[in-house]
Amino acid sequence: MSLAGKTLFVTGASRGIGLAIALRAAKDGANIAIAAKTAEPHKHLPGTIYTAAGEIEAAGGKALPLIVDVRDEAAVLDAVEKSVAAFGGIDICVNNASAIQLTGTLATDMKRYDLMHQINARGTFLTSRACLPHLKRAANPHVLMLSPPLDMAPRWFGRHVAYTMAKFGMSMCVLGMAEEFRDDGVAFNALWPRTGIATAAIEFALGGEEAMRSCRTPEIMADAAHAIFVKPAREFTGNFLIDDSFLHAEGVRDFDRYRVDPTHPLMPDFFVPADIPAPPGVKIGA
C-alpha cells in the first residue's frame, strides 16, 4: 500500500515526529505541505521548513514549505489554500504541532497555559476545520492527531493539569469529529507513543541527552502513521492507538530497531493506559 501522489498537510513538520511522518510518506512519492513556524534556524532546535523541504524531496516526495503559526486562523486558511493550489487537494491532515510545560497549577503562568491550549487544542480544531472541505472530496481522507487516549486516571492530571487538558483537547477532537464526519468517510484517529521519542522536547524539556538514550526514534511513529493512512478511512476511524501495540497488530515484531540505545531501559511516556500492555518481548523501564 502506497501514499504515492497523496497530499499531506502536516503541522510542526520542520523537525521531530512531524518530519519523520512526512519523510515516510515522501518515500512513497507523496506531496507534503510543511506547515510550521521555523523559517530561520533556532539557536537550540534543529531544522527549518526549508531544510525539511530538502529532506522530503531527497526522499522522493514533493514539498511545499509554509510559514504557519497554528494559532493564526488567517495563516492556517492561507496555507491550506496554497497547498490545494500546488497539489490539487488534501488527502491527509496531521495535527502534530504542540507545546509542552510539565508544571503544576501554581507554577503555570497564564501565558504558558494559553500557549499550550492555543497550539494543542485550538490549533488542532482550526487546522482540521480548514482541511475538512478538501478532505471530504478526497478518495481516502485521514486526519491524525498526535495525542493520547482519553484515560481519566487522576495520575495524568495531578502533576501537570494544564498540559494534560491541552493534549486531551486534541483527543477530544478525535472523539467528536470521528463521529461527526463518519458518514462523510473522513477518518479521525489519535496516535501516541508508549515510550519517550527522541525529539527536541525530550532533550530540552525532559532530561537532556541521557534521557534521549532511553527513547525510541521518531521512525516508530512514522511507520505507525503510514499504516494508519493506508487503511480504508470509512472502516478505520475513532481509534486511540499506542504506537507499538498498533504496529504489533499490523505484523511488526522487531521493536529494537527503533531504540536509540539498546543498552538503556526504555523510558515510559505519559498517558499510556494500564490496560494497553506492551507487545510480547518489549520491556519498559528498568
Written overview of the protein:
It is a single chain. The chain is an alpha/beta fold and 286 residues long. The model has no long low-confidence stretch (mean pLDDT 95). Helix 2 (49-58) links the parallel strand 2 and strand 3 (62-67). The longest helix is centred in the middle third of the chain and has 26 residues, at 110-135. The protein is globular. A seven-stranded parallel sheet has the order 3-2-1-4-5-6-7, with helices on both faces. It is 41% helix and 12% strand. The chain contains nine helices and seven strands.
Low-confidence stretches: none
What can be said about the biggest beta sheet?
7 strands, parallel
Through-space gap between termini: 37 Å
User: In what range is the share of β-strand residues?
Assistant: 5-15%
Helix content: 40-55%
Number of helices: 9
Widest sheet: strand ordering: 3-2-1-4-5-6-7
The Cα radius of gyration reads: 18 Å
Helix and strand layout, with pairings?
Layout: E1 7-11, H1 16-27, E2 31-36, H2 49-58, E3 62-67, H3 73-87, E4 92-95, H4 110-135, E5 142-145, H5 155-158, H6 161-180, E6 187-192, H7 200-212, H8 219-229, E7 240-242, H9 243-249
Helix pairs in contact: 1-2, 1-8, 3-4, 4-6, 8-9
Give descriptors for this structure.
7-stranded parallel β-sheet, single chain, 7 strands, 12% strand
